[in-house]
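queue> pop job 88
queue> type: inverse folding (structure -> sequence)
queue> payload:
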C-alpha cells in the first residue's frame, strides 16, 4: 500500500513521461503496484479496510446505549473475554474513527463545546452580575470582587468586598452603577444565595426590595447555565488575566484604586466594531439612579485589639477598654455615615462616624481615650509576674468554705504540724527534770 505522498510522486513522474519500470526503480516499488495506482481513475478511492471491531459493533452500540460514558478500559476488558485480540490503543483509535460513542449533549454544553449563538442585547437592556473569588491575596486574606457588566457594550466595573453577604453586594452594586452612569432595565444573575432562596426559584426578600428600589427586573439564569451570562464571565476572565495577575497592590484599598484606574485606562479602551467600549457604553440609554443607595445592613465581626480598636475598611474605631481582646459586631447601613459596634451581649458599646474606606484613620472618642488611659494606669506595675511553679495549697478560708459545702462544721481531717509535737515533747522533758 502506497502512502498519499508516494501516490502523488508516481503520478508526477508519469506526467513527466517516465515509464512504469523507471518509476518502479526510482521509488523502490513493484512495477505492478505502480501500474495499479497509475491505472486507477482520479475519482476512485481505495475501499477502506474493515475495522477490527466490526464483529463487536452490535455489543458496543448496546453498551453505549446503556452508558454513553463507559470507560474504554472497561470495554477492552469485556471484549477480551469475548474474543477480541487487539490492544487497548487500537480499540480507542477504532472507536474514534467509527464514531461509535454517542455525543452527550449535556456534558458537551457544560464543557463549552456545544454549538452556541450570540444573543442580541439591546442597548441599556441588561446588566450582568457575578462574583470573582480570590482565595489568595497579597494581604493574606480572601477577597471577593463583585463585577457588573453591561451586556450590550461589555463595559464593566468591579468593587472589592470583604464578604459575599447581601449588605456587601448592595453597597458594591451601587458603587458599580455609579461608575457606569446608571442602571440597565434588567439585572441578570446566577442563583447566588443572596438573590435566590436555596432550593427554589423565588427571590429573597432583600433581592425583591433592592429591585423595587432601583426599579429593575431580576432575571435569574437557569441552573448550570453559566453561558447565559457570558458577558460578565468574559469580563471576569479578562480582569483576572490582564489586571489581577500583575497588579502591584498590598491592601484592599490599593487594589480598588488600581482596579478603578485600570478599568478606565485599559478596559474601556478596547476596540469594538462601533468604537471603543467606553464610547459604546456611553451611548447606552441607562436609567437614572435613586438619590440614595439601598439601605442594606452590613454586618461583620471583629476582635478588638489590645488598644481597644476595631478595624474596618482600612480604618480603626475605638471601643471601651473592657472590650479589648473580645469579639464584637460592627453594624452599618449602606449610605449611612454612622456605624455601630455591638458587644457579644448585644449592647451597643460605640457609635462612630464612618471614615472614607482605605483612609487609614484612627477614630477614638474622648470618653474612650480617658477610659483607656485609666485602665492602662490601673494595670501598670513594676512587680514581677506570678511564679508558675509555686506551692500554694488551699488556705483556712477555702478549707472552711469546703467544709461548709460538705456539711461539716470544721474542716475534716485537720492536719497537726510536727513542730507542735516537738514543742509538746520538749515541755514534758523540762517538767520531768
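queue> result:
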Amino acid at each position: 500500500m502506497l502512502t498519499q505522498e508516494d501516490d502523488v510522486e508516481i503520478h508526477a513522474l508519469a506526467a513527466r513521461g517516465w515509464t512504469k519500470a523507471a518509476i518502479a526503480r526510482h521509488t523502490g516499488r513493484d512495477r505492478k503496484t505502480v501500474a495499479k495506482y497509475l491505472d486507477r481513475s482520479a475519482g476512485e478511492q481505495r475501499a477502506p479496510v474493515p475495522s477490527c471491531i466490526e464483529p463487536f459493533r452490535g455489543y458496543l452500540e448496546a453498551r453505549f446505549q446503556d452508558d454513553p460514558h463507559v470507560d474504554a478500559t472497561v470495554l477492552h476488558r469485556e471484549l477480551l473475554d469475548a474474543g477480541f485480540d487487539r490492544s487497548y490503543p487500537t480499540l480507542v483509535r477504532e472507536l474514534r474513527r467509527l464514531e461509535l460513542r454517542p455525543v452527550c449533549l449535556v456534558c458537551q454544553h457544560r464543557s463549552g463545546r456545544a454549538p452556541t449563538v450570540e444573543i442580541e442585547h439591546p442597548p441599556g437592556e441588561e446588566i450582568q452580575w457575578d462574583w470573582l473569588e480570590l482565595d489568595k491575596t497579597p494581604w493574606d486574606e480572601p477577597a471577593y470582587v463583585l463585577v457588573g457588566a453591561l451586556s450590550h457594550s461589555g463595559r464593566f466595573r468591579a468593587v472589592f468586598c470583604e464578604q459575599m453577604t447581601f449588605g456587601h453586594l448592595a453597597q458594591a452594586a451601587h458603587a458599580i452603577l455609579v461608575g457606569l452612569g446608571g442602571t440597565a432595565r434588567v439585572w441578570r444573575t446566577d442563583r447566588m444565595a443572596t438573590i435566590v432562596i436555596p432550593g427554589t426559584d423565588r427571590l429573597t426578600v432583600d433581592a425583591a426590595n433592592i429591585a423595587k428600589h432601583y426599579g429593575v427586573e431580576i432575571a435569574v439564569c437557569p441552573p448550570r447555565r453559566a453561558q447565559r451570562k457570558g458577558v460578565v464571565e468574559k469580563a471576569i476572565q479578562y480582569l483576572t488575566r490582564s489586571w489581577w495577575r500583575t497588579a502591584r497592590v498590598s491592601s484592599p484599598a490599593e487594589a480598588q484604586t488600581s482596579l478603578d484606574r485600570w478599568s478606565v485606562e485599559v478596559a474601556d479602551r478596547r476596540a469594538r466594531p462601533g468604537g471603543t467600549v467606553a464610547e459604546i457604553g456611553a451611548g447606552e440609554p441607562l436609567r437614572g439612579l435613586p438619590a440614595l443607595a439601598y439601605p442594606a445592613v452590613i454586618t461583620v465581626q471583629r476582635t478588638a485589639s489590645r488598644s481597644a480598636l476595631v478595624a474596618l475598611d482600612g480604618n480603626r474605631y475605638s471601643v471601651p477598654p473592657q472590650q479589648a481582646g473580645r469579639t464584637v459586631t460592627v453594624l452599618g447601613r449602606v449610605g449611612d455615615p454612622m456605624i455601630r459596634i455591638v458587644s457579644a451581649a448585644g449592647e451597643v458599646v460605640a457609635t462612630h462616624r464612618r471614615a472614607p474606606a482605605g483612609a487609614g484613620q484612627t477614630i477614638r472618642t474622648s470618653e474612650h481615650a480617658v477610659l483607656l488611659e485609666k485602665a492602662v494606669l490601673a494595670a501598670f506595675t513594676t512587680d514581677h509576674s506570678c511564679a508558675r511553679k509555686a506551692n500554694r495549697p488551699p488556705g483556712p478560708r477555702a478549707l472552711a468554705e469546703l467544709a461548709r459545702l460538705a456539711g461539716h462544721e470544721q474542716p475534716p481531717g485537720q492536719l497537726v504540724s510536727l513542730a507542735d509535737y516537738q514543742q509538746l515533747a520538749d515541755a514534758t522533758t523540762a517538767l520531768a527534770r
